[in-house]
């Protein structure tokens, strides 16, 4: 069964409050999403494999740890996922970045895929799919379906805010994919928005409406 990790780190919770706030403008919103993505990436990468490296300190020769060179792929779900990419790349600069374009049909709330471009070596990479919002779960489920269809075997999903409905749907659809969330909110409203949430993540990130 998928593990659901909810981050209770005070810095993440503090920044999330300002991300939610309607009075936070586009520039600050973008900066905060970027910062929270970095903080979450720090936790998500906790299990990365290490190997020994022989080095020489000014004092003596020693064996020390370095990352074992695992291939990582970051996949934002367009549009809003783009806002989390740089934050993750801050910590994993060698990662490749794929893109999956999905929008929610406003009537059916079902995801519609309009773009996909991934690194060529999908089966060899560990993927982190990023999107600020997990609402009904439809977009994240579909993005992970697309990755699996192309051979991805190791996937994590990271978001800022989730609705309980989305967490349930996602973990049921993808029990092998661990989920990393900054906060699980109360519910979805009748339009499929997360309550209290942060509004439309794409619009707040890019200043559209
Ligand atoms: C938002 C968000 C997720 C999706 C979540 O994207 O960024 O991708 O909704 O909703 P779900 O869990 O019910 O599928 P949106 O469809 O608004 O597209 P946009 O990023 O292009 O604005
Ligand atoms: N997409 C968003 O951007 N916000 C929500 O609350 C739900 C879906």
Walkthrough of the structure:
Helix content is about 30%, strand content about 30%. The protein is of the alpha/beta class. Strands 1, 4, 5, 6, 7, 8, 9, 10 and 11 form a 9-stranded mixed beta sheet that branches. It has a two-stranded antiparallel sheet with strand order 2-3. A two-stranded antiparallel ribbon has the order 12-13. The radius of gyration is 18 Å and the shape is globular. It starts with a strand and ends with a helix. The model has no long low-confidence stretch (mean pLDDT about 95). The site of 1-O-pyrophosphono-5-O-phosphono-alpha-D-ribofuranose has 24 residues, from strand 4, strand 6, strand 9, helix 4 and helix 6.
- Determine the number of helices (DSSP H or I, runs of at least 4 residues): 6
Q: What is bound: which ligands?
A: 1-O-pyrophosphono-5-O-phosphono-alpha-D-ribofuranose, uracil
Order of helices and strands: EHHEEEHEEEEEHEHEEEH
Strand content: 25-35%
Low-confidence stretches: none
Shape: globular
Query: What is the total tally of β strands?
Result: 13
Helix content: 25-40%
Class per helix and strand makeup: alpha/beta
Provide key terms for this protein.
209 residues, nine-stranded mixed beta sheet, two-stranded antiparallel sheet, 6 helices, 32% helix, globular, binds 1-O-pyrophosphono-5-O-phosphono-alpha-D-ribofuranose
């Amino acid at each position: 069964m998928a593990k659901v990790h909810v981050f209770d780190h005070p810095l993440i919770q503090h920044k999330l409050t300002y991300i939610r706030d309607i009075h936070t403008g586009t520039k600050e919103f973008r900066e905060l999403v970027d910062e929270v993505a970095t903080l979450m990436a720090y936790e998500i990468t906790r299990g990365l494999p290490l190997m020994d490296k022989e080095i020489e300190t000014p004092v003596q020769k020693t064996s020390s740890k370095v990352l074992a060179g695992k291939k990582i792929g970051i996949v934002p779900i367009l549009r809003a996922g783009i806002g989390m990419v740089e934050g993750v790349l801050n910590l994993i600069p060698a990662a490749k970045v794929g893109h999956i374009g999905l929008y929610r049909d406003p009537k059916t709330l079902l995801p519609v895929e309009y773009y996909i471009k991934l690194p060529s070596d999908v089966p060899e990479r560990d993927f982190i799919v990023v999107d600020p919002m997990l609402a009904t779960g439809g977009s994240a489920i579909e993005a992970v379906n697309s990755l699996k269809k192309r051979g991805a075997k190791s996937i994590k999903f990271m978001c800022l805010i989730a609705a309980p409905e989305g967490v349930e749907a996602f973990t049921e659809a993808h029990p092998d994919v661990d989920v990393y969330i900054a906060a699980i909110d109360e519910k979805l409203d009748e339009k499929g928005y997360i309550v209290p949430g942060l509004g439309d993540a794409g619009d707040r990130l890019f200043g559209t409406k």
